[in-house]
Design brief:
The structure is a homodimer.
Chain A lengths: L3 H8 L3 H8 L7 H14 L5 H8 L4 E7 L4 H15 L4 E7 L2 H10 L6 E5 L5 H9 L4 E4 L8 E4 L1 H14 L5 E6 L9 H15 L9 E4 L5 H10 L6 E4 L2 H13 L9 E6 L2 H6 L2 E4 L2 H16 L8 E4 L2 E3 L34
Parallel strand pairs in A: 1-2, 1-3, 3-4, 4-5, 5-11, 6-7, 6-8, 8-9, 9-10
Antiparallel strand pairs in A: 10-12
The structure holds a DNA duplex (30 and 30 nucleotides).
Chain lengths: ~350, ~350
DNA sequence: TGATTGGATGGAAGCGGTTCCACGAGGGGG
DNA sequence: CCCCCTCGTGGAACCGCTTCCATCCAATCA
């Protein structure tokens, strides 16, 4: 490996001069500059990024931390991030969190490795944030709310309500929810917020929330199991709201395997509107995934430029996309309505808030 | 930021000792070790990865370089890579190549940033490879053949033949090919190899290769334009073999927009068998994408362990998956067969090779 | 008891850059 | 004619870590 010292020696100048030429900084006479450049080309010299980082304290790379980054929804977000970063001169370093303990590790270990951090669906805790701040590393959150740093989010509660309302309007009363367990990886997850919206919609419609219809499983793909559970119930639901398209699609597969027809036997609504959803004809709550990545990256880049974006709280809009997996319940299919209903559980019946 | 010197001072020991404790190396008395560990915890000390890298010459990260990493096929490969890396203690640094000039940049700039390199669909040239080797960075290629470094590939030519044969067997004679232009980014691309297989299959069947039926466009998504072009032809084809599922799916969309029905008006075969293909019911040539990533990562990790894997040439198998986008051509739909045919262009008619 | 040995430890050198400071030369102004 | 400033430049210090080497001390051996 050729070093800067070698180049300096070869060109008959000092290391400082070579450094100046390479960084295009300060004043170097044209003759010297040319000579150095020639030697650089001749030797094929490439500055050592690590040494440079140590010296300057800047790594010229930004970290993107995400749980299971190969999940469709995360990928679509990344699709928004990548182009911006590519044009910004920053390297994209991906930190994939697949196990809860990796989460903390990552937030600690990024320090010194990146100049900025884009965190998708994951938030650093107080202590981690303090360290990051102390290290001068700006952090932007996507798909996770926070009160002291910039965020790009959607109103998951409203989204859950939207999905559930759609089912209610179709006439369903026996509606299940299929979500993620709140594991250490995610912390307060989108899934639980969407579940809240689901519960509110039911409340508002005066339909009781049945705990046995709220099913949680870890990892998106295992939603297949939820489908089985629901079908096996003494009084199975006529509709399901899945907290993500990944889960909805997994259920669709499982239901098909079980010989159930969608939407005839069961309506299914997802959340995200990933590309697959379109092909699968899934009714879902669409959120601008790619755009979320773009905006997150924009904010981070601004912060890296020294702009103050700490107040930024971008909220993107949601939209219900009705496709082929929802329909009114079959006559009589909804069965014994409200056997434990009395009145609405805990809420007044309010009209749905305009979106 | 607390440094090792600070810890040493606080614990009343030398920096060397702190370093030894942290790296669990050599002999440190139990008492000292405890004291240091206490101070480390108290101060929340985290070693600076950059300084460590500079000092040891190892970065503990591996680079993955890919063109357009958010493309489905690349993602599915990454799905195989990520878990292995996560468990190996190496960071995953992603280098996204979206413009031709980035290609060279990346191969140069990875030096000093990563300990190993996994290159997807992209190969370093002679000079780049020499530099990499000089820097002691092992390189593994996925989806790209090479004679001096480990590779994981499929037989794209055979795959192209498989797809085309399927169409021929259905009775098609007027078969188009939709592929990538060979841009600087890709170099010798999978697309062109698949095209070769297409041509061979036609040759073997005694069907002339019509240059006007071979359409190339950059970027997968633009295949929509190819669909339009083909439809607009005086004598449009009855079938198309697209070099990738991405392109096939784009064509499907375009055809639908044009009011053409698949496979009634036109049969379409893709290549890759990405997840979407299943949902879209696309007939395609399946290759084990995720597995290719896993194997590539395995090879790289082995190389990083010091094993000699330079001879490894893994070749994964292909399989034609027939779904709903292919059917025999409509009667009379295939039109004026062979108006310029005479005899088979340049090849004897051989029987198809067993797969 | 004195020499020997080996384990524990401190600290300097070095990794490859950047940057600041000092210095010399040349030119312009007083 | 001298001084001062500026421009170009060399090189030392520094970034925070690892690692090697020298040192010290206590225990072992003869």
């Amino acid at each position: 490996m050729t070093t800067i010292a070698r180049v300096a020696q070869e060109a008959g100048v000092g290391v400082g001069t070579v450094s100046r030429v390479i960084n295009g900084s300060a004043s170097v006479s044209e003759a010297t500059r040319q000579r150095v450049l020639d030697v650089v080309a001749e030797l094929g010299y490439e500055p050592n990024a690590t040494a440079r980082a140590l010296s300057t304290g800047r790594t010229r790379s930004v970290g993107v931390i995400a749980p299971f980054f190969t999940r469709p929804s995360v990928i679509e977000r990344l699709r928004g991030v990548a182009p911006l970063l590519a044009n910004s001169g920053y390297q994209l370093v991906l930190f994939d969190v697949e196990r809860p303990e990796q989460r903390t590790d990552v937030f600690r270990s990024v320090i010194g490795r990146v100049d900025g951090l884009l965190s998708i669906s994951l938030a650093p805790d107080k202590a981690e944030l303090r360290r990051l701040a102390a290290a001068g590393i700006p952090v932007v959150l996507v798909d996770q709310a926070h009160d002291s740093i910039p965020t790009v989010t959607v109103d998951d509660v409203e989204g859950g309500r939207l999905a559930t309302q759609h089912l209610l309007e179709l006439g369903h009363r026996w509606i299940a929810f299929a979500g993620d367990t709140v594991d250490g990886v995610h912390g307060a997850s989108a899934s639980s917020r969407r579940c809240l919206g689901y519960q509110r919609a039911l409340d508002e419609a005066g339909v009781p929330v049945r705990p046995d219809l709220v099913k949680l499983r870890p990892h998106g793909r295992e939603a297949a199991g939820i489908a089985c559970d629901l079908i096996a119930l003494a009084s199975p639901p006529t509709a399901v709201f899945a907290a993500s398209d990944l889960q909805a699609l997994a259920m669709l597969d499982a239901l098909e395997a079980l010989g159930k027809r969608v939407p005839d036997d069961l309506s299914v609504v997802g959340f995200d509107d990933v590309e697959l959803a379109r092909y699968a004809g899934l009714t879902t709550v669409a959120q601008p995934l790619e755009d979320s990545g773009t905006r997150g990256a924009e904010l981070l880049l601004s912060a890296l430029e020294g702009e103050d974006v700490l107040q930024a709280r971008q909220r993107l809009s949601l939209e219900l996309v009705v496709r082929g997996t929802t329909a009114p319940p079959r006559e009589g299919g909804r069965g014994r309505e409200d056997d434990g209903a009395k009145t609405a559980t805990n809420g007044m019946i309010t009209q749905s808030s305009p979106t």
